[in-house]
């Protein structure tokens, strides 16, 4: 279905959103294959238009209508140059029917859609990718503390850190049997640490883009000044990005990805600590 690119976009079929369903991605005009993929073209509740993409090499076959000359279409496809990260598309065909007295007529033969979309660009999918990102369950960042064991010392720095690892999700956009696979990543952006205690040692909170590091390379620390129980909380904000799967690209290159608007927020499970004081004690010299 996604073999060869189609030709230049323009006109109504290039509008990825239907006029009456601006919040619904009209993938039918891009990938076809379903009788109900164009919500804007209905009569009496029945679809009157459907789309399908076929390789340009098939343009001479009778079931795809009259493609004058045919060779020009094959050449147009061969000369197409989709931008980086875009999905090449085959030529687009449309079939129509009428609804008379509540009854649908037979579908017409397939006809080539002039000026149909050439490529499916990530920007075309951004709204749907944003919806998908909002529906994902992002795992909270783990809280790591040194010293461990839930015991920390008063008036000495406590090391806190977490993992700054992106979370990847495989998502399919669209409905029915024709969908577009994308990969969505949630990338940690900011970390807000709250170092509370029952003695009122509210401390910060401290917000940073640094996830911190373990001792001896620590970068995020807190010094408790009161003994007793304390709590440690972490809130992480996540930005989103996505790419169309199957498109070659370096996943470490930011240009491979398209940013998603907005952000997600997670709250890590509270860690309970005990802040204690370590005092020296004089003891009798046992060697005497």
Written overview of the protein:
The strands form seven sheets. Strands 13, 15, 16, 17, 19, 20 and 21 form a seven-stranded mixed beta sheet that branches. Strands 5-7-10 form a three-stranded antiparallel beta sheet. Strands 12-14-18 form a three-stranded antiparallel beta sheet, with no helix packed on it. The longest helix is centred in the middle third of the chain and has 14 residues, at 122-135. With 288 residues, the chain is mainly β. 27% of the residues are buried. It has helices at 28-31, 71-79, 122-135, and strands at 17-18, 21-25, 42-43, 46-47, 49-53, 87-88, 92-96, 99-100, 103-104, 111-112, 119-120, 144-146, 151-153, 157-161, 167-173, 180-197, 206-208, 221-223, 228-244, 258-267, 271-276. The chain has two domains: 12-120, no CATH class; 127-276, Sandwich (Immunoglobulin-like), CATH 2.60.40.10. Mean pLDDT is 78; it is low at 1-26 and 33-37. A hairpin with a 6-residue loop joins strand 15 and strand 16.
Per-chain topology:
Layout (H helix, E strand, L loop, with lengths): L16 E2 L2 E5 L2 H4 L10 E2 L2 E2 L1 E5 L17 H9 L7 E2 L3 E5 L2 E2 L2 E2 L6 E2 L6 E2 L1 H14 L8 E3 L4 E3 L3 E5 L5 E7 L6 E18 L8 E3 L12 E3 L4 E17 L13 E10 L3 E6 L12
Parallel strand pairs: 13-21
Antiparallel strand pairs: 1-2, 3-4, 5-7, 6-11, 7-10, 8-9, 12-14, 14-18, 15-16, 16-17, 16-19, 19-20, 19-21
């Amino acid at each position: 279905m996604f073999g060869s690119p189609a030709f230049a976009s323009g006109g109504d079929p290039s509008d990825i959103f239907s006029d009456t369903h601006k919040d619904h991605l009209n993938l039918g005009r891009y990938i076809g294959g379903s009788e109900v993929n164009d919500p804007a073209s209905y009569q009496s509740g029945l679809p009157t238009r459907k789309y399908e993409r076929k390789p340009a090499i098939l343009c001479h076959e009778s079931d795809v209508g009259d493609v004058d000359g045919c060779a020009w279409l094959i050449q147009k496809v061969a000369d197409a140059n989709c931008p980086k990260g875009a999905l090449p598309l085959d030529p687009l065909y449309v079939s129509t029917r009428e609804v008379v007295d509540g009854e649908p007529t037979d579908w017409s033969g397939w006809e080539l859609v002039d000026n149909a979309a050439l490529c499916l660009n990530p920007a075309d999918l951004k709204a749907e990718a944003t919806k998908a990102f909002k529906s994902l369950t992002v795992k909270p960042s783990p809280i790591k503390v040194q010293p461990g064991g839930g015991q920390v010392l008063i008036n000495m720095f406590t090391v806190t850190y977490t993992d700054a690892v992106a979370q990847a999700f495989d998502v399919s956009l669209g409905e029915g049997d024709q969908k577009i696979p994308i990969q969505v990543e949630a990338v940690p952006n900011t970390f807000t640490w709250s170092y509370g205690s029952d003695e009122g040692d509210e401390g910060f909170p401290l917000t940073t883009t640094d996830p911190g590091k373990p001792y001896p390379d620590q970068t995020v620390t807190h010094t408790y000044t009161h003994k007793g129980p304390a709590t440690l909380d972490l809130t992480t904000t996540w930005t989103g990005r996505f790419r169309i799967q199957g498109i070659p690209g370096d996943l470490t290159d930011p240009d491979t990805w398209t940013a998603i608007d907005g952000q997600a927020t997670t709250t890590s499970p509270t860690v309970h600590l005990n802040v204690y004081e370590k005092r020296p004690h004089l003891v009798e010299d046992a060697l005497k």
